[in-house]
User: Fold these one by one.
Assistant:
Number 1:
Amino acid sequence: MAKALIPIRDWLLLWGDRFAPVLTFAALIAIWEAACRIFDIPRFLLPSPSYIVVGAMDQTVATWAANIWATVKIAFMGYILAIVVSIPISVGLALSRFLSRTVYPLLVVIHSTPVVAIAPIIIVVMGTSALPRVFITFLITFFPIVVTTTAGLMATPQELIELSRSLRATRAREVLHIRLPYALPYIFSALKISSTLAIVGAVVAEFIAAERGLGYFIELQTSFLKINQGFAALVLLVTISLCFFQVIGLIQKTFAPWSLPKKQ
Amino acid sequence: MTEKPLAIRFEDVTQIFGKPGGKSTTALDGMTFDIAQHEFISVLGPSGCGKSTLLRLVAGLVMPTRGKVSIYDMPVTEPRDEIGLVFQRPTLLPWFDVLSNVTFPMKHKYGRVDAADKVRAQELLGLVGLSDFADKRIEELSGGMQQRVAIARALLHDPDILLMDEPFSALDALTRDEMSFELLSIWTQRPKTVVFITHSIQEAVLLSDRIIVMTPRPGKIREILPVPLARPRSVDTLSDPAFLELSNYIRRQLFSHNVA
Ligand SMILES: Nc1ncnc2c1ncn2[C@@H]1O[C@H](COP(=O)(O)OP(=O)(O)OP(=O)(O)O)[C@@H](O)[C@H]1O
Ligand SMILES: [Mg+2]
């Protein structure tokens, strides 16, 4: 009898472990729903999950799609801009003492400026097109990429640099063949951090000036006290962030599996 | 001491790091010696005495503060093609397989790897006992195997001078002995001038024609010792009375300054 139960126990442990994250979320949502009903929490303070679903259904799929697309587009463009600008800057910082003494302090100052505070100024200066929103997203995402990539480029084993010098290879090849690949684990962790920051950037920009996008949508709906719709948009934002993060992980796994952190 | 042509010559070489006036370190002080072609030379000395600096000078990676380093009677002004480098850590490229790691110097220097390079790389892998590992990933290899790959990489352009900076010191004792004999067999099959840096007296005596023993900082030559052991050397060499006598002599030399 007890023996017969052992496979079932193992089976439960195995599947319990596999689905632990999902189960945790399911439990949390259940508790949330129950708490809202039991304590009769006002809907405009904390909507229950079921009421959020109702809110989501109030809008057409087309509305959601348009808002999602607007936010994703801005986040993606800002993110790509950040990568395109940051990696060459990192190479410059890693190779040139002059640049790291001049440009780097500048970057620190830019990064230390609260983006939320200068965002309105940026919008005034750049107008109401997508440009200022992309730029704000860029401002929030570029710094982690620069700092981490530079650290990665500098972490290249000295021996390999000496090997490169002993072969009289060009500086460009030193960067392309040795330093950049060596920095890939660093670059990918920066890209993961920045992927979620890109969504933050896009939403911040939309709070300030936009007529579309999930950030704008939250602002609009909450001003009408439609908190459940705001929450529905929030859930979408979290989902987009997670997907973004996962996609970067997938790219790393596919194209540079050796750069993944070593499992014990 | 030999009629062989001269490979490497140091003339009163002094290497000082740091700005003059500011804080500076004298790494090497007035080193003078000759190394003949295809001679196996070990450099032995306490940590920080400038052994790696000596190697970098030969490699043309640093220029001496004073004095002259020459290879084949030409002063070293930049890294030269005759040189192969092996470091303490294998420092292979984890994104390439074993064969591509061996051919990497060609790719890095000329931007391409041709079929002949690959054939040579495969031969070298055979020479270091890794014929069957050409398409393995680096992380699948043990430390000893990785160091063999690093040696194959250094031999790819068939350098006349092989510079090795404590190449076996990160390996366990057994692998280390095995690698010593392997290096001797490679050196016999492909004669080269080898400058071999080590902390191990046994390794130095077993491998070398002559041993440069250095003093602690600033590094000077304490003594240059010929090794009176016949070749080919084998495990039996380790119990040869001459081997033991020389090893003990060097040990006393290295520790004498602690006593005095
Ligand atoms: N690029 C450099 N800049 C400043 N000082 C240096 C530089 N390279 C070496 N030194 C100094 O020169 C001295 C000799 O260094 P070196 O690395 O040649 O010693 P070593 O004999 O190889 O030591 P170890 O056995 O620990 O490897 C040390 O004091 C070191 O700090
Ligand atoms: Mg050293």
Number 2:
Amino acid sequence: MIKKMFIIFGRDFLSSRRDALAIYIIVVPLILAVVIALFAPGLNDTTVNIAMLESDNALHIEYIEQYAKVEVFKNIEEVERRVNKRDEMAGIIPLGDGYEIILQGNEAELIEMYAVMLNSFYDLRLTKEETTATMISFGRTVPPLKAKLTNMLISMTIMLSGMLIAISIVEEKNDDTINAVNVTPISQMGFIIGKSLLGSSVAMISIIGAIFITGFYNVNWVMIVVIGFCSMILSLVIGFLQGINSEDFMEAAAGVKMLMLPIAGSIAGYELLSDKWQWTMYWSPFYWAYKANDLILAQTADWPTILLCTGLVVLSSAIVFILFLPRIRKGLS
Amino acid sequence: MISVKNLSHIYSNNDKLAINDISFEITKGETFGFLGPSGAGKSTTQGILTGLLKLQKGDVQVAGYDMNKVDNKRFNKIGVSFEQSNVYSKLTAKENLEFYSKLFDVPTRDPEELIKLVGLEGKENDRAGSFSKGMKHRLTFARSMINNPELWFLDEPTTGLDPTIAATIKNIINEQKAKGVTTFLTTHNMYIADELCDRVAFIIDGHIKLIDTPKNLKMQYGKKLVDIEYVDGNEVKKETLKLIDDKDKKRMYEIINNYTIQTMHSKEATLEEIFIQVTGRGLI
Ligand SMILES: Nc1ncnc2c1ncn2[C@@H]1O[C@H](COP(=O)(O)OP(=O)(O)OP(=O)(O)O)[C@@H](O)[C@H]1O
Ligand SMILES: [Mg+2]
């Protein structure tokens, strides 16, 4: 049966290679990923630069070097000159008992916070093992805008994969070929799963491709795959329903595009609503998917949170799927 | 091979019974013709026998499987050619057959050979979307043979084909018959039915009016028919009358006494004429 599912998949792939709309859907996320990568240059450069004095405690320099790129200078003037250059750089120089942080003034808050934190950790002599967790969550080493854009792209990719399924269902409907498949030994469930494979694999490849192109190599890929796979289920169900209820490709594509609304709403809700009102978005699986991806891209995700989000996405998808399975079955017979 | 008892079917959006309490048996190796006018319920019956329509009422056994239970394995033994051709437009003729053949668990026939068989040689690598209606229909027909079916459902296999190609299709059906394939043949074409079928059923408005061999039907209804052409005013009229029917006999005297006869000959009834006699309706 598995083999037959892949035969269905192979045929869908062959057909979509000959369909302009399908090709478009497959390549658009990757193109957008390239656009994000090009328009947000240098954002991957997550290393924080620190200028220090040669005369400083060697242990201190060594400690800071574990977490930042350190450049050493002969005197305070040189450190100040370096910090005042255009790029993001903070200086740490000894002052009396403690240290002074030198900033240009237009440095990101992030850098300032990082430098301060780093130095306090040194004061406390925290080891790497003890501090990593705190450091990352404080250090937000990932540029937020780029992560947000990539995350939106992921949401869009998931929607597009639904569209791909809808298109291939409409093809079967237009050619009236479902009847022909229904008089072969493949079971209806096998057919449905086989039909999902193209959308799923394209979504998975696009998501991974997009994250790679935009340069988030260090994310937890397992988490990405888990949440990506689960948020796709909903899109698959909607793709099937839309395919069954549409007469032509354009109608199907337009129908799936309606998903934009809850997706955009969920993203806006997550980004703009205050914590007090976040609960108003809890109904939306897209909210949970977006939240999970947000945490993963920021590299602040932990498994319990991701599993919670995933569970909620799967739950809502399953509810929709079970509710509409009879419709899908009927539409495919 | 097929056993149907008291089968009825109604479409949800239609309050008339599409099939009304029909029963018949088809034995192994038999070619069974299902004849009737448009809307009689032929395709509906085929739909139920192939499992595409859900069995609502009645007992149906097909190729040893009870149609109340779903078992997709049975399709390894069954071939189905559809009334409306249904092939993937974006795939070539060959790709269509190759894809389809992979869905079966039994040895399948060579796609190119089948394409050749139905006269589509040279079109293997053309997309089915570019095919004419008749070509698509032939591809659908060819596909139905891909798994070497023991039981073969053909819904209007020759409709819309030119006479030469229809003859080719007829020959293919004959060859399959020689191999012992059981065929359920739905058609409007009485000549094809006459030549190919071991038995035919006349179906009208969801009822089976009779089931018999073409030979018996002709013995019973044939021979005693007379075609008369006569002149009435400026018009030449034609009537076909039964010599055993009193009303028809009176009518014949009437014509002979009142009009000028142009031609008059007795003949064997065609299946079509028998159909009209039995059901009182034409086949269209
Ligand atoms: N999908 C459907 N929904 C509702 N009624 C239908 C449907 N299909 C067929 N019918 C009705 O069922 C009856 C039988 O139709 P069917 O298609 O079986 O006829 P047929 O003998 O195959 O005719 P034809 O020679 O035109 O193919 C008709 O009265 C038709 O109107
Ligand atoms: Mg029909």
